[in-house]
């Protein structure tokens, strides 16, 4: 048997994202299972799925589809008259998600967006949106998270052609060694990209054990900018507030903002995270202290 190189699964999975996004965008029947316009919705998940839930919630509400809140599954206040709960999970085995869905079963309609079609959550939710083509072998998530978000965006009427083209271009672009070798990273977002900023920070921590932070862009100047310095990076997803780039650059830090769809910019971050991990002798397919799913003892 050929021994795989460190991060081989993550590399294959992150480079497949344009293809899986296109597939998700075409799943009209699956998208129809998501809450209808006007419904009041709670979206829950853990870790990466929680951050993607934040992006979906912001997009759904700002597009006029209805009040939408995102919660970590362990801290979800779902007894607030929601019309539906959307549970996002790659494995379908995460303890907190299963417990929450069991708790509301029969009282609030539940929709699961799930990577593993054999998982126990499939039969527990009222409706299951299955994305097995986006499931992953790497512990560190890339394509499942972004493919779920592609599905959500398409369900809200977005045309993802530009995002898919941007992701393909990002994956074909030259490597940025300076970006890979930074001492510290702060990720920023506004509106729906705040969730992407939090996810980017988590991805870098998981894969390369790096010092990362994440904030809403406007809040970054209320203290966190104090850590900006030469050799460090402040990375904006989407449009930055006026004047922020100049303020960051005045500290000597590098301000990063790419004129692409923010989800495609997250793909760029995936490449940086993988390259940084491998350069440090780490394997993001099996990162320190982490497992594919968090299953807690009873």
Which key phrases capture this entry?
globular; 4-stranded parallel sheet; 5-stranded parallel sheet; Rossmann fold; alpha/beta
Describe this structure in words.
This protein is 40% helix and 15% strand. The chain is α/β, with parallel strands linked by helices and 298 residues long. The protein has two domains: 8-155, Rossmann fold, CATH 3.40.50; 161-279, Rossmann fold. The strands form two sheets. Strands 2-1-3-4-5 form a five-stranded parallel beta sheet, sandwiched between helices. A four-stranded parallel beta sheet has the order 7-6-8-9. Helix 5 links the parallel strand 3 (84-89) and strand 4.
Gist?
With 298 residues, the chain is an alpha/beta fold. It is built from 12 helices and 9 strands.
CATH architecture of the largest domain: 3-Layer(aba) Sandwich
Tally of DSSP β-strands = 9
Question: Which percent range fits the helix content?
Answer: 25-40%
User: How are the strands of the biggest sheet laid out side by side?
Assistant: 2-1-3-4-5
What would the average pLDDT be, to the nearest integer?
A: 94
Question: Segments where pLDDT lies below 50 for 5+ residues?
Answer: none
CATH topology of the largest domain: Rossmann fold
* CATH homologous group name of the largest domain: Glucose-6-phosphate isomerase like protein, domain 1
Task: Name the helix and strand elements from N-terminus to C-terminus, one letter apiece.
Answer: HHHEHEEHEHEHHHEHEEHEH
Number of helices: 12
Radius of gyration: 19 Å
Largest sheet: 5 strands, parallel
Quote the beta fraction: 15-25%
**Total discrete domains:** 2
CATH class of the largest domain: Alpha Beta
> Which structural category fits the helices and strands?
alpha/beta
- Give the termini separation: 38 Å
Shape: globular
């Amino acid at each position: 048997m050929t021994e795989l190189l460190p991060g081989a699964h993550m590399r294959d999975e992150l480079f497949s994202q344009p293809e899986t996004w296109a597939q998700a965008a075409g799943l009209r029947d699956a998208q129809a299972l998501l809450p209808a316009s006007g419904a009041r919705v709670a979206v829950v998940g853990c870790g990466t799925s929680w951050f993607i839930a934040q992006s979906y919630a912001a997009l759904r509400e700002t597009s006029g589809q209805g009040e939408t809140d995102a919660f970590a599954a362990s801290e979800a206040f779902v007894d607030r008259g929601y019309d539906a709960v959307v549970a996002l999970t790659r494995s379908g085995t995460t303890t907190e998600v299963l417990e929450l869905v069991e708790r509301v079963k029969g009282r609030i309609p539940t929709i699961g967006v799930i990577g593993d079609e054999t998982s126990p959550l499939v039969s527990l939710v009222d409706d299951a949106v299955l994305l097995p083509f986006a499931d992953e072998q790497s512990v560190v998530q890339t394509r499942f998270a972004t493919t779920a978000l592609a599905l959500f965006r398409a369900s809200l009427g977005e045309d993802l052609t530009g995002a898919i083209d941007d992701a393909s271009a990002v994956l074909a672009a030259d490597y940025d060694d300076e970006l890979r070798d930074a001492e510290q990273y702060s990720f920023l977002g506004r509106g729906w990209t705040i969730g992407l900023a939090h996810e980017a920070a988590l991805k870098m921590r998981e894969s390369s054990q790096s010092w990362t932070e994440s904030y809403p862009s406007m809040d970054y100047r209320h203290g966190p900018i104090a850590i900006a310095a030469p050799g460090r990076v402040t990375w904006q997803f989407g449009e930055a507030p006026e004047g922020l780039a100049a303020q960051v650059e005045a500290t000597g830090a590098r301000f990063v903002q790419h004129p692409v769809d923010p989800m495609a910019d997250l793909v760029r971050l995936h490449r940086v995270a993988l390259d940084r991990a491998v350069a440090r002798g780490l394997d993001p397919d099996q990162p320190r202290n982490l497992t594919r799913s968090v299953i807690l003892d009873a």
